[in-house]
TrEMBL record:
Protein name: ADP-heptose:LPS heptosyltransferase
GO cellular component: cytosol
Gene Ontology MF terms: ADP-heptose-lipopolysaccharide heptosyltransferase activity
A GO BP entry: lipopolysaccharide core region biosynthetic process
InterPro entries: LPS_LOS_Heptosyltrfase (IPR051199), Nucleotide-diphossugar_trans (IPR029044)
Superkingdom: Bacteria
Length: 642
């Protein structure tokens, strides 16, 4: 069943402590809420508070417990829910010996395998979020913990809006859920480290073993709201307990400035001197955050039901200007998808390697559409791929990129493209993917990060290329495009390539073939301007002499001269199609052929995507003689039934 055991330590948790129970009561699975109340001595991992000048005066508590009504509230709900709410306290007048003792207190009562979920009094989740997180753990039994992002409130309607700064450091925040087994124990509370004894005597830290990453939980809409500095009373408590001198006055100044900030931002360190990084404050509505708790006109607080339906929009807004991923998952074939896909509504695919790269990714685009039937798919590609995308049935939007191959990271064109992508597509995608495995994958990966997409999938490069360590910009890597597709579907993905055509192209190809002489086999011959008297011309003469093979000459305009010479030498066995078909007609023509020899763009790229056998030619054969190619083709044809 995988029950969920929630763990809260609290002192003076009003008003937010009153939020959680009604959420838990909506959950459709077994749960238990363990609340540990009281003062924690400033020792062990809380000793930093005393070092800053923090203290615990008598008016901060009542006999070691809350003085704001929290104690009475906990007594009432424990009586209402005797089987689902447990309250742990020290005897009156006694303090807990640090927060590790507090979080350890309920473990003896947790005698079943479960999810252990730390919920601080001011951390607000929705029932839908908790249910979705539990489903992720059920679907992925190997996951040991989960990391989350949060919307960190520094006022009733002010939030922090930058990652890897105060309130949202992905290096260690926010680890909140663990797959618990009886016998696990707490090593520390800040940061929270839950350990599992191992047979060899060592201890496994569950949060570091195999957690869901921030980007993976964000893809499921699992971003909680942290009302850490939302009320004046909270700030007054922190001023005393944590030693933040003058915090209340500075918080008041922040609220006044926040009311006038509009759509801008405020540096948090200008108001909170204990903050030294570049964290910035914006209004909640500007950050696309709808607070679950709001003050009323009388100075009280009310809780607002969440909007129906989870969304990745707040997470996308939060991740929009993030840097490289702090953690990166290597996708393993056969494992369940590492993140939910039902909320993915917008996908960016980066294919900057020309028409060959686009056709090579045709199977990826098909499987992507199959896995995400409702998503809007936008493809970024170079101009020479335009004709191919005009035929592609899986793409909603095409964006043209200038060719960037071989350019340095600080090249002016690269910089301009990055700026334009960042301006036009910042926050536009839930997921981006680059199925290309070549050295120029680094450019595409960098552009994916410039969009701020929470999920960025790409093939492993594993080494720096022209100043870029391409993998650094990814959240998920795999050795092959098929491995990337495994992140999106529980089934077996099929990345086999395909060729797209149009009805007009099919008619044009059929009409052209009707001009030729029927033969047992159709061999497409790819020509370029350099082909004429070489081994390919000799091969065509040899194949024409066989009598059972029709030659279909294809190539671009520059190959017209070579095609005319070969057609003149081979007579009726040859059909010269060079320059006579558009891209769609050429695709339809090559799909009707049995094999391909030669070279030339785009014919060779189309032949590869159409999975035509390239008998006796190709990179693995070097520069073969006409006799060697003829022998290879003869052997191949002999093994085929007509």
């Amino acid at each position: 069943m995988l029950p969920v055991h929630f763990l809260t330590i609290v002192l003076n948790g009003d008003p937010f402590i009153r939020y959680h129970l009604e959420v838990f009561r909506q959950l459709p699975f077994p749960w238990h809420w363990h609340v540990v109340e009281g003062v924690a001595e400033q020792v062990r991992d809380s000793s930093w508070c005393a070092q800053r000048g923090g203290r615990v005066p008598q008016d901060l508590h009542r006999d070691g417990r809350s003085s704001d009504g929290t104690s009475q509230y906990l007594d009432r709900i424990a009586a209402e829910e005797p089987g689902r709410v447990s309250v742990y306290r020290k005897p009156p007048g006694m303090f807990w010996q640090g927060k590790v003792e507090m979080v350890t207190a309920p473990l003896a009562a947790m005698t079943e395998d479960c999810l252990l979920w730390q919920v601080d009094a001011d951390e607000l989740w929705t029932a839908e979020q908790i249910t979705r997180a539990r489903r992720m753990f059920l679907d992925s039994p190997s996951r040991t913990a989960a990391l989350y992002l949060c919307h960190f409130f520094v006022g009733p309607s002010l939030v922090l809006d930058r990652l890897d700064q105060y309130g949202n450091y992905r290096a260690y925040e926010w680890l909140r859920t663990w797959r618990y087994r009886p016998g696990d124990f707490w090593h520390s509370h800040v940061p929270p480290r839950l350990m599992r004894p191992q047979p060899d005597g060592s201890d496994l830290e569950l949060g570091a073993a195999n957690p869901f990453l921030h980007e993976e939980t964000a893809a499921g809409g699992l971003v909680f709201q942290h009302f850490a500095y939302a009320t004046r009373e909270q700030v007054a408590f922190k001023e005393i307990y944590y030693g933040y001198d003058g915090a209340v006055g500075r918080w008041d100044a922040l609220q006044a400035a926040g009311r006038a900030v509009g759509n801008g931002t405020l540096p948090l360190r200008d108001f909170f001197p204990w903050v030294t990084d570049a964290a910035t404050v914006s209004r909640a509505e500007h950050a696309m955050v709808e607070p679950l708790a709001r003050p009323d006109a009388e100075g009280g607080w009310g809780f607002v039901p969440p909007a129906r339906g989870a969304s990745t929009a707040p997470a996308v807004a939060l991740l929009r200007n993030s840097g490289p991923a702090v953690r990166r998952r290597t996708l393993v074939p056969g494992e369940p998808p590492p993140f939910p896909t039902d909320l993915i509504r917008s996908v960016g695919v980066f294919l900057p390697d020309g028409v060959g790269g686009v056709l090579g990714a045709s199977g990826v685009l098909r499987e992507l559409r199959r896995a995400l039937p409702l998503a809007r798919i936008t493809v970024f590609a170079t101009p020479d791929a335009e004709a191919a995308f005009a035929l592609c049935p899986y793409v909603n939007q095409r964006v043209t990129l200038p060719p960037l191959k071989g350019r340095a990271p600080d090249d002016a064109l690269v910089t301009a493209v990055r700026q334009e992508i960042g301006q036009q597509f910042s926050g536009a995608f839930d997921l981006t993917i680059n199925p290309h495995r070549g050295e120029d994958a680094s450019f595409a990966n960098r552009l994916m990060q410039d969009t701020g997409a929470p999920l960025r999938l790409g093939c492993r490069v594993g080494r720096p290329v022209r100043g870029y360590y391409a993998d650094a910009f990814l959240t998920h890597v795999a050795p092959t495009p098929a491995g990337l597709l495994g992140a999106l579907t529980a089934g077996e993905p099929d990345p086999a390539t395909e060729v797209w055509t149009s009805p007009a192209g099919e008619r044009a190809a059929a009409a052209l073939l009707a001009e030729g002489v029927p033969a047992r086999w159709r061999c497409a011959v790819g020509l370029s301007a350099s082909v004429g008297a070489g081994s390919l011309s000799e091969l065509c003469r040899r194949l024409a002499a066989r009598g059972d093979t029709a030659l279909i000459l294809v190539g671009d305009e520059a190959a017209r001269g070579a095609a005319a010479r070969i057609a003149g030498e081979t007579g009726s066995a040859c059909l010269n199609a060079v320059g006579r078909l558009g891209f769609d007609g050429l695709c339809a023509l090559l799909r009707r052929c049995d094999l391909f020899v030669g070279t030339g763009t785009p014919a060779e790229d189309i032949a590869v995507a159409a999975r035509l056998p390239m008998v006796g030619t190709g990179p693995e054969h070097g520069d073969p003689t006409a006799e060697a190619m003829e022998n290879a083709i003869a052997a191949w044809l002999a093994g085929r039934a007509w």
